[in-house]
Amino acid sequence: MIRLTTPITEAQARQLKVGDEVLLNGKVVLSRDMGHKYMKEHKPEWLKPILEGIVIYHCGPVVKKNEDGTWSFVAAGPTTSIREEPYQADVIDTYQVRGVIGKGGMGKKTSEGLVKTGAVYLHATGGAGSLLAAQVKRVVDVHMLEEFGSPEAFWVIEVEDFPVVVTMDSHGGSLHEAVLATAQERAKALMEK
After folding, report:
1. What is the pLDDT of residues 16-32, one digit of tens each?
2. Among this protein's residues, is 42 annotated catalytic?
């Protein structure tokens, strides 16, 4: 098990390989469809210091506002990442993001972006939203809440021992591609019988 704390350097990201199990600590920024489109089209300067060396989490959290005005996460499960494929490589490069958390993997364009910039794709367990929320120790800040709404806002959180697995690395490795190729071979063999 590898323990990583954000911000992550390019060298640290490049040391990770497909299959590595990671416990992530430190700040993570949540962003989904609206946020990725906004980052690619507008390239807001205010986000650069927030995202540099950080991990983006594809997650639409369930949150509650506490009496003292702070926020708590009720559920924080990953959302399907492939929707961000048109944007992800550009976002990684522009903001020097070192990792992306989600589920289901991403495509060739993102893989090329991971190699170019020195970043990884980290898979979180789908269906475990309340368990993953327990690893969110505090909400540091939230941006664009009024504009985008709660599921799409930029939530800046602090996590402790957040469990993920490297499924795409900065060397072109992809567990998703390997599993697909194996499944296709097995399917072909079954059809020939």
Report:
1. 999 999 999 999 999 99
2. no
Dist CA 112 CA 99 (whole Å):
13
Where does 2-192 sit in CATH, by number? 3.20.130.10
Helix (H) or strand (E) holding 162: strand 154-168
Task: Please give the Cα distance from 188 to 174 (Å, whole number).
Answer: 21
The pLDDT value given to residue 43 = 94
CB-CB contact of 90 with 148 (8 Å): no
Q: Distance of CA 179 to CAs 3, 52, 185, Å?
A: 26, 31, 10
- Asked if 118 contacts 96 with a C-beta cutoff of 8 angstroms, the reply is no
Enumerate the domain spans of the chain.
Answer: 2-192
DSSP H or E stretch at residue 89? helix 85-95
* 68 dihedral zone (left: phi>0; alpha: psi -120 to 50; beta): alpha
> Is the pTM of the predicted complex or chain greater than 0.70?
yes
Cα separation of 119 and 127, whole Å? Answer: 25
Residue whose entry in the numeric block shows the structure tokens 């490589």? 89
